[in-house]
Amino acid sequence: MKKIALLFVAFNLFIACKKQENNNEYNLHISGNIKGIKQGKLYIQTLQDSTLMVMDSIIFDGNSVFESHLKIDSPEMLYLFLDRGQSNSLDNNLVVFAEPGNLSIETSLETFYANAQIKGSKNHELFQDFLKINSRFTNEQLVLLEKEIKAKQENNLSTLDSIQQANEKLIKRKYLYTINFALNQKEHEVSPYIALSEVHDAQLKYLDTIQKAMSPKVANSKYGKMLTKYIEDRRKEEK
User: pTM of this prediction?
Assistant: First the structure.
């Protein structure tokens, strides 16, 4: 019996060591709670070559608390998709700018995206700040679009001309704000991400300025390298 007990203890120690070895391979710990969920599945995905790849999947069966251990080379955007099973909702997707360390996600089944509280990532905080200001430009564009539709219905050419001028000025303001935001956040990976996702079609001189302003750490990150390559490719095409 003693031999069996010793073997059992040794086996448990071996398993514990293996778990510790596996945990050392991960550098991102995500813990969270989706209040109200009873059943369903959560997919944590990353974008690779324009395709969403599943990094982890979590099954809910009566418990709304979840956690995941992942490995990321540098801060990057993760895409969370909630499969509700029988019930359908448009509010199934959540974008999180994750970075190595501990990340917490608190949300609910009813408002998975709208109610999400995410802590543990400075890049995510900065990205949310950007989205708040950027939404104002979007709202202004919608107002101009409504005015444009009305002017077309009334065949009011002078109003259409002024709306077009106002829209051009708005686009310039939006681009300048985005470029300045990226420059001001040169120490964070959100800078090249925003450059690539929001102003990729800007003049090369502006993208060059953002790229040259990046800190060495950011320049060596996933999005820093992508921005550098993108600029190089565009420069070749435009020659």
Answer: 0.85
